[in-house]
Amino acid sequence: PPCRVCVLRRDHHCRLLGRCVGFRNYRPFLCLLLHAAGVLLHVSVLLGPALSALLRAHAPLHTAALLLLPWLMLLTGRVSLAQFALAFVTDTCVAGALLCGAGLLFHGMLLLRGQTTWEWARGQHSYDLGPCHNLQAALGPRWVLVWLWPFLASPLPGDGITFQTAADKGLVAS
């Protein structure tokens, strides 16, 4: 791994956080994606009416340039600093919400399948115990509540080294 640290049940190295995500910190990572996507989407919605009024006041080409190239519009003097700030913050929040949402959907799919990113890339399904068991294995017995508060006491089953497989549970044909 890029960080040169061993992590139990390593899922991936998160460049945004600068650390590996695995057995002990997968739950906070998922909650970070959920809460960040929610907050960024909320801010985008709150800024929507002001941005809409700004965009309606200009021609379509000006509007497209403001949304796609706000820095260029500011540097050429076509928008005020306040208009630039509104467009830039809204663009950043929308892009962040989309990225966090995509990450949440991807890792949610992996969570329900009982896979790590490494296993998904190689098509391995050895640890898929069914959605409910997979949720409990990754988030603990109080998995429904940890989405709201990731620091809630919900001990993870197991030691992070040995895991029950689908074959152990009789979910795979011999």
From TrEMBL:
<keyword id="KW-0808">Transferase</keyword>
<dbReference type="GO" id="GO:0005794">
    <property type="term" value="C:Golgi apparatus"/>
</dbReference>
<keyword id="KW-0012">Acyltransferase</keyword>
<feature type="domain" description="Palmitoyltransferase DHHC">
    <location>
        <begin position="3"/>
        <end position="122"/>
    </location>
</feature>
<keyword id="KW-0812">Transmembrane</keyword>
<dbReference type="InterPro" id="IPR039859">
    <property type="entry name" value="PFA4/ZDH16/20/ERF2-like"/>
</dbReference>
<dbReference type="GO" id="GO:0005783">
    <property type="term" value="C:endoplasmic reticulum"/>
</dbReference>
<protein>
    <recommendedName>
        <fullName>Palmitoyltransferase</fullName>
        <ecNumber>2.3.1.225</ecNumber>
    </recommendedName>
</protein>
<feature type="transmembrane region" description="Helical">
    <location>
        <begin position="32"/>
        <end position="55"/>
    </location>
</feature>
<feature type="transmembrane region" description="Helical">
    <location>
        <begin position="94"/>
        <end position="112"/>
    </location>
</feature>
<keyword id="KW-0472">Membrane</keyword>
<dbReference type="GO" id="GO:0019706">
    <property type="term" value="F:protein-cysteine S-palmitoyltransferase activity"/>
</dbReference>
<dbReference type="Pfam" id="PF01529">
    <property type="entry name" value="DHHC"/>
</dbReference>
<keyword id="KW-1133">Transmembrane helix</keyword>
<dbReference type="GO" id="GO:0016020">
    <property type="term" value="C:membrane"/>
</dbReference>
<dbReference type="GO" id="GO:0006612">
    <property type="term" value="P:protein targeting to membrane"/>
</dbReference>
<dbReference type="InterPro" id="IPR001594">
    <property type="entry name" value="Palmitoyltrfase_DHHC"/>
</dbReference>
<comment type="similarity">
    <text>Belongs to the DHHC palmitoyltransferase family.</text>
</comment>
